[in-house]
Amino acid sequence: LLAEKVEQLMEWSSRRSVIRMNGDKFRRFVKAPPRNYSVIVMFTALQPQRQCSVCRQANEEYQVLANSWRYSSAFSNKLFFTIVDYDEGADVFQQLNMNSAPTFMHFPPKGKPKRADTFDLQRIGFAAEQLAKWIADRTDVHIRVFRPPNYSGTIALALLVSLVGGLLYLRRNNLEFIYNKTGWAMAALVCRFSL
Q1: Is the dihedral of CA 124, 125, 131, 133 positive or negative?
Q2: What is the residue-averaged pLDDT of the chain?
Q3: Which of 17, 25, 63, 188 is least buried, going by the fewest C-beta atoms within 10 A?
Q4: What is the DSSP letter of 74?
Q5: Residue 54 burial by CB count (10 A; 0-12/13-18/19+): exposed, middle or buried?
Q6: What CA–CA distance (Å, rounded) separates 92 from 25?
Q7: What is the pLDDT of residues 64-112, one digit of tens each?
């Protein structure tokens, strides 16, 4: 039974870093023994009608952390990242007496979660690095967080250089527009109001 559970969790993890769970999956893979693995569960309310902007931000950080674990060389079947959305697992929220989201909990391989197995979101925040530190304290699994690169500044600069270069190339025979004060004033106003 244990090998079957671990195999199923590994299969799900190979497809997605964070495993979505409903009430039945939660009871079978997280609560029910036997277990020789730790599970980090994010309880959340991501549906648009819930209007939980904090849930979306926390979910982005959680995805960064789970992807960092999934694609690290230390990845193993000792730790899994899961998510229970209120709309898919309201019974789980009731069973655990939860009335707020997002909440992060660690379910250890043996026994029930202790008080320290609930992440102190209000005091610490939900940055991926903070979650990784908390997980290291609870499980001895150290996750190095890798954030995806942000190329928006580079792309904007390349676009600006290509536009200016294209304009100069098209007007190469008549560059008098460079000395037009009205044109530069208009460009400055556009830049000023766009920032």
Answers
A1: negative
A2: 85
A3: 188
A4: T
A5: middle
A6: 10
A7: 988 888 888 888 888 899 999 888 888 888 888 888 888 888 888 887 8
Question: If you ran DSSP here, which 8-state letter would residue 172 be given?
Answer: T
Lookup: tokens for 83: 């998510």
How far is C-alpha 107 from the chain's CA centre? Answer: 20
Q: What is the per-residue pLDDT across 157-176, written as a single tens digit (0 to 9) for each? A: 899 899 988 888 887 787 77
- How far is 17 from 6, CA to CA, in rounded Å? 15
What are the sequence ranges of the domains in the chain? Answer: 1-147, 149-192
The CATH number of 1-147, from 3.40.50.150, 3.40.630.10, 3.40.30.10, 3.20.20.70, is: 3.40.30.10
For the ranges 46-50, 56-60, 66-70, 129-133, the lowest mean pLDDT is seen at 46-50
Alpha-carbon distance of 163 to 183, in angstroms, equals 16
Strand-pairing partners, residue 79, are 38
Q: How far is CA 101 from the centre of its chain?
A: 15
Q: How many CB atoms lie within 10 A of CB 23?
A: 16
